[in-house]
Amino acid sequence: MGGIIDFDTACPWQLYLFSTLHMLGGLLMFPIDVCKLFTGVACVESEVVMQRMMALSMVYVGGLYGMLTYHNKDKPAKITRLSNIALNAAIALLVSVVFIGNSKYGGFEKSWMHVGDMWTALIIAFVLADRVSQKDAEWAQKIPVKEGLGANCKTLVLIFTVLAVVKFLALADYIDPSKLMSEGLEITAFASWTWKFIIVLVFESFLAMFFTLLFEDDSGHELLVKTIIVLTLFVAGAFYSMQQYLSGWMGLNGNALWTRLGVMVAVCLLAIVAGRHTGPSREGYENVAN
Question: In this structure, what are the phi and psi dihedrals at residue 279, rounded to the nearest 5 degrees?
């Protein structure tokens, strides 16, 4: 242990801080009306939906980075790579806070909240940047994407990564958020900003998957798939109460949600089983985090 900031990767606290703040931020949005904090007015229907989507997206990001950090806590080279990935995510988060704006100058967020969010995002970016800039930092070597593909979790991680990119681009430029809402419900200015913040969180999720694809072994691929199963079940359960506000456009209401969820979980479980039985070696699975 040395100095105010200790970069001993036996405890990668910078990454734990990054993931914990996402998790706590998301969970705190469940009992709190975010609109009252930001604008002083209670949320309308579209804002309620977007708030829940933002909360779940933050929990999702925190869960992905938290599990990957725990899995690699004793692997300094991978921790450095993951810290670098998280740094890019933290910068994206910082920029999104800048764009929400201080209400004093035409933005959405109350002054004290904006200052707090700015400093929080800036500190996260700083500690991650300081972590990866150390002279003695080890860097994990990239594993070729084509290596090890087959009926296993790596192939599924590749598919998830590609889908995350497609989702990110689609949400940013091709999907009108008003199509998600039931007829007669309008997207407010605050709901529109929240939608953009959700897109940033999708990008953060993509980066976590991208890290797993490029730098993880079989155990890391399986861990990510297991984590996605748990997080997706949580997200589906927590989002179910929002169905009354949703249209059928994206299949998020009615039985379609559970059908899609069942198919996804089944595919994930098949990939885990197939990977463990058809892979060239079980060595990579010995250290899967429980």
Answer: -70, 155
Q: Quote the pLDDT of residue 145.
A: 93
Q: Are 220 and 266 in contact (CB under 8 A)?
A: no
In the numeric block, which tokens belong to residue 169?
């681009």
| Residue 246, strand partner residues | 181
pLDDT digits (tens, 9 = 90+) for 190-214: 899 899 999 999 999 999 999 999 9
Amino acid identity, residue 245? Y
Burial, 134: exposed, middle or buried (Cβ in 10 Å; 0-12, 13-18, 19+)? exposed
H/E element, 206: helix 189-215
pTM: 0.89
Residues 6 or more apart whose CB falls under 8 angstroms from that of 169 comprise: none
Spell out the SS3 assignment of 125-182.
HHHHHHHHCCCCCCCCCCCCCCCCCCCCHHHHHHHHHHHHHHHHHHHHHCCCHHHHEC
Whose structure tokens read 């990866």? 132
